[in-house]
Design goal:
alpha+beta, 4-stranded antiparallel sheet, 7% strand, disordered C terminus
């Protein structure tokens, strides 16, 4: 009896093992079912309806939206008309502004022209002022130069006068006879010149020959050429010498008495 029970126990254990393996196999088989459910799940995008139902829905939708569409169309037409009127007003305003801008440009151009003319006038005035200043400067310079020339001429005359006075002061010979053109200064001298004077007296202003050297022809101690100086006529045919401002002139006289100063000597 124990042997039969042992066989039953063994059979039961094998059945349990088979059941366990079946359960494990079933678990492994159904473990992927949730994913398969999601994968195999379908979505119905279209639903088939009968035609009368569809027509009723269309008519109801049309009856619902027609008044709204008409109202919106009237509003849109009114707004379009308002925009068209505003467009016309803006065009008129734009034309007006263009006219104003054109007039402003013309005014600015004229004002620029006037400003340029004024600038040119200012420049001309400035150049005229500069020319006037330059003219005044030149006139002042001319006056200064004129004054300088007059001063130099006066100094030259004073030096000549001083030289003549020194010549008179240094003269000791009694043969000189002095006379004056202005009765205030000794302007000329005269003395007889004999042969002894001609031979012994050195020439004050020797005459130069054509070769450039002194000319001693005729033992003339003084220049014999004519000048614009005054002369004194005498008589008795004595040889005399006339001097004025340091220049000497030789001439022939007839007498030792002075007559008529300023005339030419007699031959």
């Amino acid at each position: 009896m124990a042997a039969s029970l042992q066989a039953s126990v063994d059979s039961l254990q094998s059945s349990l093992q088979t059941l366990d393996s079946s359960i494990s196999t079933l678990d492994s088989a159904v473990s992927d079912f949730p994913r398969l459910c999601k994968v195999l799940q379908t979505t119905r995008h279209f639903e088939l309806l009968p035609e009368p139902t569809l027509r009723e829905a269309q008519q109801s939708l049309l009856d619902e939206i027609t008044p709204s569409i008409a109202h919106l169309l009237s509003l849109a037409s009114n707004h379009v008309e308002k925009l068209s009127r505003r467009e016309q007003a803006l065009k008129a305003k734009c034309e007006l502004q263009e006219g104003r801008l054109h007039s402003n440009d013309s005014r600015q151009a004229s004002s620029r022209g006037v400003g340029a003319m004024r600038d040119r006038q200012r420049q001309d005035a400035g150049s005229a002022v500069a020319k006037a200043a330059e003219y005044r400067r030149l006139v002042q310079k001319k006056e200064r130069l004129k004054y300088t020339v007059e001063r130099l001429e006066l100094q030259s005359q004073q030096r000549e006068r001083q030289l003549r006075k020194n010549f008179v002061a240094n003269t000791t010979s009694t043969e000189y006879i002095a006379w004056s053109k202005t009765d205030s200064e000794a302007a000329g001298y005269m003395r007889p010149c004999g042969n002894a004077y001609k031979e012994n007296s050195p020439p004050l202003f020797p005459r130069k020959s054509a070769s450039g050297g002194p000319d001693n022809q005729g033992s003339m101690p003084f220049d014999h050429y004519r000048t614009d100086l005054r002369e004194t006529a005498t008589c008795k045919r004595q040889t005399g010498v006339y001097a004025d401002l340091g220049r000497l002139l030789r001439w022939s006289t007839k007498t030792a008495d002075f007559i008529c100063p300023g005339k030419r000597p007699h031959p």
